[in-house]
Design a protein that fits this description.
alpha+beta; 1 helix; about 80 residues; about 15% helix; 4 strands
């Protein structure tokens, strides 16, 4: 059985650019980690639980509104119904 999109899940989102920790509350409480690049713009990785894909879309839309380029979105784990 594949992922169920109406359940909480852990996501990893990578973006091009810098985003500081103060944005965590506005992005579903996701943990924010900046990776400095030697000769390029920094990249930021967000990791955390989101209640469903609607919340994921909200985070992605917020990043879009901040003009940050989305590099990847990865479903790391989900809470399956037993």
């Amino acid at each position: 059985m594949g992922p169920q999109f109406d359940l909480p899940a852990i996501y990893r989102i990578q973006i091009k650019g810098y985003l500081d920790d103060s944005w965590s509350d506005r992005l579903g409480g996701m943990e924010i980690k900046v990776i400095e690049q030697a000769e390029d713009a920094p990249e930021t990785i967000l990791v955390g639980w989101l209640p469903d894909q609607a919340a994921l879309c909200g985070v992605i839309n917020a990043l879009y509104n901040l003009n940050l380029a989305l590099l990847s979105v990865e479903l790391i784990g989900s809470q399956e119904v037993q």
